[in-house]
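Why should sequence recovery work at all? Because a backbone constrains its sequence more than one might expect. Tight turns favour small or flexible residues, buried strands favour hydrophobic ones, and helices have their own preferences. The token representation captures these environments compactly. In the example below, the structure is given first.
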């Protein structure tokens, strides 16, 4: 299926979302809204468990905001759709795992798009940067996220200087999970997605909700929220058939059969 410059492909319970906007896979308002609609559909489809995001071609993953569109009048504070810029980072209740397969240049809002994923795989030739400083503006979402993902001083260096980081360095600082040959990137992403798709979806949902909420909570408050079942996903998990199935499968020394209920 295609939605303008956003292509989707379903493989069982895995949805691959490919950004395809020649020449550089930049995101304008229309594309952001289309991505938001796709990810909202992924969130709400009980048959889909994992998403993979990537860019078309081998040179660009995504450079972020489409500056040509901006020059033609698109405002930086436009309505980017249900999920905010790129359709992911502000999408409410997205409690399913997302894998980013970074296949080339990943900078500015494109790096923020990748940071919205839960796992990041990178091709060997992928490069990363936050060049907003050179345009006299702030990398808003990255300023919030990056210091929590990699060492503070490295994050500040990237934000202050706009310098480029190659895939090897990104892996060294823990920004990406794996670095792979270009030809193996999507294959590995789908292999990882297939592994995750066999896991317990209700647990994934609880992990994602709790992790999000805990960013603005004291540790004890967040822990009390789990144990008292104040998080909807935790409450659903603790009352689920899957919770019992996990215990039974362990006791019977067999592989669990997760139903998502």
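From this structural description, the recovered sequence reads:
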């Amino acid at each position: 299926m295609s939605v303008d410059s956003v292509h989707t492909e379903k493989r069982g319970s895995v949805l691959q979302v490919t950004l395809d906007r020649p020449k550089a896979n930049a995101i304008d308002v229309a594309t952001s809204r289309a991505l938001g609609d796709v990810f909202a559909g992924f969130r709400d489809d009980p048959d889909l468990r994992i998403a993979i995001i990537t860019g078309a071609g081998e040179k660009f993953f995504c450079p972020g905001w489409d500056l040509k569109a901006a020059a033609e009048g698109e405002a930086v504070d436009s309505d980017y759709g249900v999920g905010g810029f790129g359709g992911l980072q502000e999408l409410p209740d997205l409690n399913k795992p997302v894998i980013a397969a970074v296949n080339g240049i990943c900078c500015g809002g494109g790096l923020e798009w990748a940071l919205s994923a839960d796992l990041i795989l990178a091709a060997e030739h992928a490069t990363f940067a936050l060049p907003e400083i050179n345009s006299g503006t702030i990398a808003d979402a990255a300023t919030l996220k990056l210091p929590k993902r990699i060492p503070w001083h490295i994050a500040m260096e990237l934000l202050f200087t706009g310098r480029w980081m190659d895939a090897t360095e990104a892996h060294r600082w823990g920004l990406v999970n794996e670095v792979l040959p270009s030809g193996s990137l999507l294959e590995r992403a789908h292999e990882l997605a297939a592994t995750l798709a066999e896991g317990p979806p209700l647990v994934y949902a609880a992990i994602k909700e709790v992790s999000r909420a805990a960013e603005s909570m004291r540790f004890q408050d967040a822990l009390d929220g789990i144990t008292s079942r104040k998080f909807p996903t935790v409450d659903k998990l603790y009352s689920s058939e899957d919770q019992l199935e996990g215990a039974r499968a362990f006791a019977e020394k067999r592989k669990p059969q997760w139903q998502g209920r």
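A few observations help interpret the result. The chain has two domains: 2-197, 201-252.
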